[in-house]
Every structure is written in structure tokens, then in C-alpha cells.
Amino acid sequence: MASSKEYLEFIIEQLSEFEKIKYRAMMGEYIIYYKEKVVGGIYDDRFLVKNTKSAKKYMSNVEFQLPYKGAKEMLLVDNVDDKEYLKGLFD
Predict the structure, then answer these.
(1) Is the pLDDT of residue 59 over 80?
(2) Which residues pair with 65 in a beta bridge?
């Protein structure tokens, strides 16, 4: 299942305080970049971030999910409605 453009636009709007956020469409999904580095993506209308020490430490409820079959596990961001929470992911 591909992600919707509407969900992508919602996440990009939530991250709008970051000037260096970009995305690229890839096989029906979207890769999210911050300062030219991959930080996560939109997969099946889920916002997933890379499994890093700082992300795991910041997130209070760590849930691992696969973006697609055969990929490395990523962290599900389940609090996408809270801009301040999202801001902490990239500070």
C-alpha cells in the first residue's frame, strides 16, 4: 500500500519549523531528509524515523516497525499531532 500525499503534506506541515526538511518520493512512499541526511520516512501512512540512540532516548514509547519487508526496523512516531514533540526528534 502506498502512502497518501495528504499524509505526507500533514507531516511536512508539522515539521515546517525546520528549514532544512525535504522529502523524496520513492516507490509509493516518501523518504524524509533533514540537513541532507535521511532521518526517516512515510511508509503506509506511518511516520517512521531511523533507529538511533538519541531517538530511542527521546521517545517515551518506543515501538519498532518495519517500513517494508526486508528493511531494518524503524521507530514509529505515534505523536504526530504534537509539533513540539516532533521538534524534539530533530533538536
Answers:
(1) yes
(2) 74
